[in-house]
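Holo model, S-adenosylmethionine. Inputs:
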Amino acid sequence: MVATPIGNLADIGQRALAVLGAVELVLAEDTRHSRRLLDHYAIRTRLAALHEHNERAALPGLLEQLAAGHDLALVSDAGTPLISDPGFRLVRAARAQGFQVSAVPGPCAAICALSVAGLPTDRFLFAGFLPAKAGQRRTELATLAAETATVVLYEAPRRLLETLDDLVAVFGPARRAVLARELTKLHETVLDGTLAELRERLASDPEQRLGEAVLLVAGAPGAAAADAEVRRLLRALLDEGLAVSRAAAVAQRVTGQPHRALYRLAQALHDGEAESQDGAAPPA
Ligand code: SAM
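Output:
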């Protein structure tokens, strides 16, 4: 499994070049695309197509080749094979038959994006491409909204704005996010802000919708942290002199939480404050 560059041809390792030059056959998603990479490095190995439409049918023949002692390499158009790319069936079948499957590591857009985004990386959830259909996409996002790990998404340029609209609607406008675009290429851009800010930026600047992009969304705060954050927000609004109902309404807009619960919490904070003021009142 040989990783290849995600845009910058220089991002290929010595071992990848050696393996691509040494194997009997290089399996590639798009042979014309990978031919350009091999030509660039003067590698003459034969290429054959392996993509999602022929992977199942090609399997028996490929397993026969492995059984005959031939070494095969698999590459995708860009990055690490199998990561939102074909090859899973081949790896599963090859391993099941006892063939050695080795990784020749290299670029992966998700990992590159995480390394420059400045969002927590101790835990992340790679969600790949969201469904193309709007309803399915929103349902999928709803299952991710409470995820506390950083969520990593791949997206096609033509759907970026639509996906940001959905993210704003489902995750709330205030969630922090990063758009890592054209990584390793001339127009590499890393934008960060709230989901609403990113959405506005893309809506007003069509250039930011071009090219390839990874979207990273900060995880939801854990329940305790979320609770503390909402309390802090309500406390600040009440301190600014907002009435309980107004503070709850503003907090609802910011957090997307139900008004009734926010109102009750705001009331409790307000009453607690009144009590403590009473308690602190100077003796007559
Ligand atoms: N296997 C690849 C990998 O390891 O990253 C991913 C292949 S997937 C079909 C293609 C998606 O990866 C693009 O739609 C985009 O979301 C992301 N991607 C690939 N190259 C990128 C780049 N240079 N900058 C940002 N995102 C990229």
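The longest helix spans residues 259-280. The CA atoms of residues 270 and 276 lie 10 Å apart.
Archived with the compound record.
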